[in-house]
Amino acid sequence: RALLGPDAAGVRQSLVALTMDDGYKDNRTQLLPLLQRLELSATVYLESAPLDERRLNWTHKYFWVLERTGSQRFAELYRARARDERTCRTLAEPLSDYHQKRVLKYEAPVEERTRVVDEIFREQGGDERALCEQLYLDWEEVRELDRAGGMAYLGLLAGGVASAVNIAAYADIVRERAIARHLISVGSNIA
Asked: What is the C-alpha radius of gyration for the chain, rounded to an integer number of angstroms?
């Protein structure tokens, strides 16, 4: 409303939709208090694997290993296990952490990348469930956000694709807009 100045008095709907992806713990510990203080709300899209199975995608394991080995040693470990020559050649070059991740994400064969990162993660002492507990909300924390009223989630993301949505929330939006259209129509007919 501060951005709109004197025009803010007549604004009844949000002009911005704030969304957060993945359902990390900081959505509850950092974001929720901020939203409550500012009297705002947000939608949090949750990944199903961390919630239901306490499993992580490969990037969390990659960054966990990277913190312990550095990018050069990670590349050596990866090349020793991978069969894809193209990816191995690219990882033999000195790359920034960011570029190395991009190579793994966009150029490495998915199944091989997942297998190799998992192997290195386990070899370095990684515990997937413990890391998941450290990074992601659990169902009780999700319910806590929902009860707080400012962070209702609308969907679950599985593999980066929305797999479910909160039909009731969307139904409310559709109903409100249908009523508004009807009122406009009736008003136009009267005039």
From this structure: 23
Has this prediction a pTM greater than 0.90? no
170-184 pLDDT, tens digit per residue, is 555 556 666 766 677
Nearest to 61, CA basis, from 107, 108, 106, 125:
125
Separation CA 114–CA 107 (nearest Å): 13
Return d(Cα 167, Cα 176) in angstroms, integer.
14
43-82 pLDDT, tens digit each? 788 888 888 889 999 999 999 999 999 999 999 999 999 9
User: Which regions of the chain does DSSP assign to beta strands (E)?
Assistant: 19-22, 43-47, 155-158, 161-165
Parallel/antiparallel/unpaired status of strands 19-22 and 155-158? unpaired
